[in-house]
Amino acid sequence: MSKVNVELILENLSCANCAQKIEEKVAKLSFAEDVSLNFVTKKLSAKVDQKHYSTFVEAVKRIVDEIEPGVRVLVAPKEKPMLNMGEISAVVISAIFFGVGLLTRKEDFALIFFLFSYLLSGKNVILSFFKNLRKFQVFDENFLMTVATLSAIFLKEYPEAVSVMLLYKIGQILEDVALNKSRKTIQALKHLEIEYANLKIGNSIRKVNPKDIVPYDIVVVKPGERVPVDGIVVSGKSFLDTSAITGESKLFSVQPNDKVLAGSVVVDGFLEVKAQSFYKDSALHRIVEIVENASVNKSKTEKFITRFAKVYTPSVVIIAIILAILPPLLFDQPFSLWIYRAAIFLIISCPCSLVISVPLSYFASISKLSSKGILVKGSQYIDILASKIGSFLFDKTGTITNGTLSVEKIVPVEISQQEFLKILISIESLSNHPIAKSILSQVEQKDISLSSVQELKEHPGRGIEGIVEGKKVLIGTKEFLQENGVKIEYSFEKSPEFLYIYVSCEGKFCGYVALKDSLKDDVKKVFNRLKSLGSKIYILTGDKKEAAEKIVKDLPIDGIYSELLPEEKVRIAEKIKLENKELGYVVYVGDGTNDSPVLSVCDVGISFVKNSSYLATLAADIVLLDEKLYKIVDLIKDSRFTRKIVIQNIVLSLGIKFAVMFLGILGVANLWEAVVADTGAMLLAVLNSLRVLKR
């Protein structure tokens, strides 16, 4: 039975601790896999068998109702306003009652006003406390706040009990505003999704859903419209605005044979674009998908905070109980004094600021990076890149070079130029390899009719073969042809800066193509920056040693490995990982189909969506939406800034809590100060997390 991805929205979920409990309980369902609950987006995702879909949804509703009554489980999200006017009205009325209670001189009347204020501002907390108590579910903020305030009421500290609940409610509203701001940033990505495509059928145009477009369909894109799928321009010229996809505000000119990404806006002119992929495989759809699912791969810090909160809260409750009972019994002091101090201890102990702010920092970082054209598949990779990177391993062609090889020579041997080009183009037109694309983009094809190709087979790192008009054709390295019994007796002067592609037909050598590549403009600058961070740099390539060494001779690298097959790249990467075990992580940057295995082997794999194969973007942990290498430096800078924010939030939250706990035990801090400190710590941590979005 095939598994399906289920996504549910938990509307009104505002309790981080409850979210953690829901995720843990849903993950225990026998028919659910890969369960993840993102508190920021309120999205619960999982994989289930199709036959268990309804059962899963009902089970989630039951679990949610048990843990956090009032939260609705929806299949599709519902937009919520930034401010909940009902809650704000309740807080305003509660504050008025509280003020009147403070000003009323008659104690009995004051008590009535305090009671109304308490119930109005704290009704949700109190109801959740009693519902959870019935199910023996304690140790959350509802439990801590209710026990603390009821203790204050028992001690006849009515103004303090009310102020605690009122300030807590105000803090929740402000926290929701901050979180909603973050959610709006993420949800803005959803608005990039394209509503329709102009499909060309013969001489007519029909509006269709972009999901109905298949490879080789022709779509027409008018001025002001967005390209619906990744494809190749077949007709028309225009400037494209790719800022929503790559984060670059600069306009790019495109013409026939240029590649365009879904989501790019046509500024002027009309374009006809041949689809190269389905909509679900487009760069645009992958942006939304990667960012939304990034919370599945949690960082070590997030996992630690989750474990910490599970131990911390029960420990604090036990200490508070001991604090309320033991000193009066041992030192003959009044119970009222130590119950009051225990209440302060409970209020300040709530771990919300940690449980909310740490995941929010990472999620905000993933969102911000996506707006720069950097897609990160999980916060664990931000953690790694913020740490010590021992070595960077780079592929050569299409990664540190432009990948668009210029054709310098076409030399047929014992065959006409026309026949040679016909064989060459017929085969290469079916390949996605950068070399094939370079040949096709530069070879004149006006008078050449393509032949059909059968039994096409690619040999990564070596070449390609197929049957053209009944004849077996091999195209690739000299060694590839020789391994297949082709004798190459034709002699010519070779230059190490050229890449040679050899062609044979029916076992006979029939010519070669000489190509030349060049380094990307920012390679040297990027390598120097990475070296300044203390990392080693290695080049891994399938190219010949002489050619590879010539092109990288002026770069600050620590080593080059050439003439590598895909499996040999993996062995080299594993060897470097072993050597670097104590020096830091190993990062691989590559973009070809043959890079997929090594992308998976390294601690972090980085690929480019513009030039990379679909397999490479699947294997990569981070995908760059354009070919600029300097985005790797930006990625490291942003990752380190995010970790700095996370550490600040942990120190801030725990520092304030432990300080007020200590002061409360000494009798210096009161309930007012405890709730202001708790709410303040939470707000400061959340607002500090949102600094990542402003970077």
Strand content: 15-25%
Largest sheet data: 7 strands, mixed
The number of helical elements comes to: 23
Question: Strand tally, please?
Answer: 26
Strand order within the widest beta sheet: 14-26-25-24-15-22-23
Radius of gyration: 32 Å
User: How would you state the average pLDDT, rounded?
Assistant: 80
- How far apart are the termini? 46 Å
What are the segments in which pLDDT stays under 50 over at least 5 consecutive residues? none
* Structural classification: alpha+beta
Estimate the global geometry from the Cα principal axes.
elongated
Task: Give the number of domains.
Answer: 5
Oligomeric state: single chain
Provide the helix percentage: 40-55%
Summarize the structure in words.
The chain crosses the membrane at residues 82-103, 109-130, 311-331, 337-363, 645-668. Residues 195-292 form the P-type ATPase A domain. Belongs to the cation transport ATPase (P-type) (TC 3.A.3) family. Type IB subfamily. The chain is an alpha+beta fold and 695 residues long. It folds into five domains: 3-75, Alpha-Beta Plaits, CATH 3.30.70.100; 118-194 and 283-368 and 637-694, no CATH class; 214-277, Calcium-transporting ATPase, cytoplasmic transduction domain A, CATH 2.70.150; 379-397 and 522-620, 3-Layer(aba) Sandwich (Rossmann fold); 402-518, Calcium-transporting ATPase, cytoplasmic domain N (3-Layer(aba) Sandwich). The protein contains 23 helices and 26 strands. It has a seven-stranded mixed beta sheet with strand order 14-26-25-24-15-22-23, with helices on both faces. A hairpin with a 2-residue loop joins strand 5 (197-201) and strand 6. Helix 5 (141-154) packs antiparallel against helix 10 and helix 9 packs antiparallel against helix 11.
